[in-house]
Structure to design on (140 residues):
């Protein structure tokens, strides 16, 4: 064999094996950073913080004050009772509830969040601020 042919073959063989030797090592999957969680605490007074869109509003502070005081038993009135498709429903302070529903109702002291636990033929059982109350249904 002549020298240029041997050199050419040697270069071709070395070139064919070079990618296997100098190939990139397998890379580990990139680690995605965990996004930071935003924490917001509701200010108790206007000195602690304000609503940036309505700085003169006292609404956020009224909700905090309303949830802390006790609600009188006479604050809730059943204004209606009906059965729709076999499911009983009551109207408490102009808000309709079925068993298991939650919602805010207006009282003399402001909005109060309640959960309707049970409806019986003579009464409805609600839960307000962790305490249960029984409201009588007046059938006229």
């Amino acid at each position: 064999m002549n020298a240029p042919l041997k050199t050419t073959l040697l270069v071709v063989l070395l070139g064919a094996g070079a990618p296997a030797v100098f190939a990139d090592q397998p890379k580990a999957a990139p680690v995605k950073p965990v996004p930071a969680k935003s924490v917001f605490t509701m200010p108790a007074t206007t000195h602690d913080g304000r609503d940036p869109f309505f700085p003169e509003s006292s609404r956020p502070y009224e909700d905090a004050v309303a949830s802390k005081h006790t609600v009188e038993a006479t604050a809730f009135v059943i204004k209606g009772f009906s059965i729709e498709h076999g499911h009983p429903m009551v109207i408490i302070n102009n808000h309709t509830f079925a068993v298991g529903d939650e919602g805010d109702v207006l009282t003399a002291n402001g909005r109060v969040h309640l959960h309707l636990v049970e409806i019986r033929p003579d009464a409805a059982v609600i839960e307000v601020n962790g305490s249960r109350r029984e409201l009588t249904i007046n059938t006229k």
